[in-house]
Design brief:
CATH architecture of the largest domain in chain A: 2-Layer Sandwich
Number of helices of chain B: 0
Distance between the termini of chain A: 53 Å
Helix content of chain B: under 10%
Oligomer: heterodimer
Largest sheet of chain A: 5 strands, mixed
Number of strands of chain A: 12
Radius of gyration of chain B: 12 Å
Number of helices of chain A: 16
Strand content of chain A: 15-25%
Order of helices and strands of chain B: EEEEEE
Strand order of the largest sheet of chain B: 1-2-3-4-5-6
Number of strands of chain B: 6
Order of helices and strands of chain A: EHEEHEHEEHEHEHHHHHEHEEHEHHHH
Largest interface: A-B, 48 and 41 residues
Strand content of chain B: over 45%
């Protein structure tokens, strides 16, 4: 028997669980609420107003002005998702994560009844509520299709168990678009054939379906009967990736070529880094741009070789962008690499790569990031505007960002300027420390980049300085005085706390 | 409700309960905040360093996000939600 655990309004529910003030009020999770962007998640209290994930924030504010807008924390959601995964694995080893807030679980044996599976699911719902203060809707079925669709029958905190017969009873009268895998365009084409409900799809002639939809036609008909033989792929069995990409909604519509190129460079670097860290190479580069009218353009180019080098990805993406961008202000830019292969198979040509120094440098830089974090090294071409892109998917380059915009000439701006200098110093210090640790791997580095060999005292000097506290109060122009580590403050005696 | 992103270094008094760290109270801006409830706990990796985050609720119904950074080691107050 298969369970589909679907966390209810996951991101918004996590924020409500962590911030009791948000419980019972409409909550909208988004990027930086002071900038434009889209709704990442809406709580159940916000949904009656018509707010949905993916909707522009401006529209959400119009529909639900009383909502609390919360800046999302993707790393927190992933961490909680992994903790949930551990909980599932304590029940069964057959767990297939489907998304950050959904997972398929294979429970019991072939002879397990719906009622037995329902008892397991009810226990799981209780555990999730007790441990995480979150609710989940669970669908139970003999296969993944039925479980997935059953999970949507009753929300939030629903528990629906259906066999194939129950599936037909519940879903046959429903609109064709309620079928898993039938989107708006497919539904429109089906309606043009006179198929408006799931039941009508189940009884549609195979020949007509095959002629119109090709090989998926008969598969959809089987699905309409509640039949699905897709195997559950357990967590421990790796799934081959087909593509990897990053995209970012810009802080404001932008037609500055330097800024857009810097963004493409940063995205290319992120994608290439992911490819390398997961052992892939790819040979198709796709660039995606979206203008202020939400017109999206995607163009791709097949390379002559497999690569995981950010320079090649960037150069290809930039060439595509230059070829197809007409100069209009853009709101979104993305880079994707597809046609993936495992690096040991697809990347054999790298054995004969003339630029071994570049490969070694790339490996050394990867080791730096493994040790100090993704933000410890970024391409120099994107440094000038790193603070503007310091949000998802890049992550902050230094500590958490303040949430207010400095007024030119204010003390706050001066503070930020001094912080930028400090950050640059931190960047150089981190780079120096990393090169020091990687000096044996970099015999080919130019002399001026080779770190001097120093004694222990010198080495310590190159280690990252402990991050200093940055303070930035919402809506305030002047930054609070920043206490420096080790500096005595009034009432600083730790015994006060005891 | 008011939300602030911060990075203030703070002193935190903690207890170990059932193998878990539990913040009990902390000093911020010269005053002591008593923790009524730990509402959430998660980790974030920054390179090889594992940062531990706690979402806590005070007796005044404000919520705070505390971060334990083992590099210092030190504690940082990273976010504040004011109920008022």
């Amino acid at each position: 028997m298969i369970l589909l655990v679907d966390m209810d309004a996951f991101f918004a529910s996590v924020e409500q669980a962590h911030h009791p003030q948000l419980r019972g009020v409409p909550v909208i999770v988004c990027g930086d609420p002071s900038r434009r962007g889209v709704v990442t998640a809406a709580s159940y209290e916000a949904r009656p107003s018509g707010v949905r994930a993916g909707m522009p924030l401006q529209e959400a504010r119009r529909l639900c002005p009383e909502a609390q807008y919360v800046e999302g924390n993707p790393e927190k959601y992933v961490a909680i998702s992994l903790a949930l995964l551990n909980l599932y694995l304590s029940i069964t080893p057959d767990v297939e994560p489907f998304s950050v807030d959904e997972a398929f679980l294979g429970v019991g044996r072939a002879t397990t009844t719906l009622e037995e599976a329902r008892a397991i699911a009810a226990d799981l719902q209780r555990s999730i509520l007790e441990r995480f203060a979150l609710t989940a809707s669970i669908g139970i079925g003999p296969n993944k299709l039925v479980a997935k669709m059953a999970a949507g029958v009753e929300k939030p905190h629903g528990l629906t168990a259906l066999d194939e017969e129950g599936f037909r009873r519940v879903f046959w009268p429903q609109e064709i678009q309620s079928m898993w895998g039938v989107g708006p365009q497919l539904a429109t084409r089906m309606r043009s054939l006179g198929i408006t409900t799931v039941g009508e799809l189940a009884h549609a002639p195979d020949v007509a379906l095959k002629a119109t939809f090709g090989i998926i036609g008969p598969q959809l008909r089987e699905a309409a009967w509640g039949r699905d033989d897709t195997p559950l792929t357990p967590y421990h069995r790796p799934v081959e990736a087909k593509s990897m990409g990053h995209e970012v909604t810009l802080p404001e519509d932008c037609h500055d070529p330097a800024f857009l190129e810097g963004t493409l460079l940063r995205l290319s670097d992120q994608v290439a880094r992911r490819l390398r860290s997961e052992g892939y190479v790819g040979r198709t580069v796709c660039v995606k741009i979206r203008d202020r009218n939400f017109t999206t353009l995607m163009r791709q180019r097949v390379l002559g070789e497999f690569t995981a080098d950010h320079r090649l990805v960037f150069e290809t993406a930039r060439a595509l962008w230059r070829q197809h961008w007409k100069g209009e202000p853009l709101r979104l830019v993305g880079v994707t690499v597809s046609s993936l292969a495992r690096a040991h198979a697809g990347g054999q040509s790298e054995l004969f790569e003339p630029d071994l120094r570049a490969t070694r440098l790339r490996e050394a830089l990867d080791r730096v990031r493994d040790r100090l974090g993704e933000a410890s090294l970024v391409p120099a071409g994107s440094l000038t505007h790193r603070s503007r892109l310091g949000h998802v998917p890049f992550g902050p380059v230094t500590g958490p960002r303040g949430s207010c915009t400095p007024v030119p000439g204010s003390a706050h701006e001066r503070h930020r300027a001094s912080r930028r200098h400090r950050n640059l110093g931190l960047f150089i210090r981190r780079l120096g420390g990393a090169l020091l640790s990687a000096r044996h791997a970099l015999p080919g580095l130019p002399r001026f980049l080779r770190p001097p060999l120093r004694g222990r005292r010198g080495q310590r000097d190159l280690l990252p300085h402990p991050r200093r506290a940055d303070a930035c109060a919402h809506g305030e122009e002047d930054a609070r005085r920043v206490p420096v580590h080790g500096e005595a403050q009034p009432g600083d005696d730790p015994r006060d706390l005891a | 409700m008011n939300f602030e992103s911060l990075s203030d270094r703070i002193d935190v008094l903690t207890a170990f309960v059932d193998g878990h760290v539990r913040p009990l109270r902390f000093r911020w801006q010269g005053r002591i905040v008593r923790v009524r409830k730990v509402t959430g706990e998660w980790n974030r990796r920054e390179g090889s360093v594992l940062l531990r985050y706690f979402s806590v609720e005070s007796h005044a119904a404000d919520t705070y996000e505390l971060c334990y950074d083992p590099r210092g080691p030190h504690w940082i107050l990273s976010r504040v939600w004011n109920a008022s």
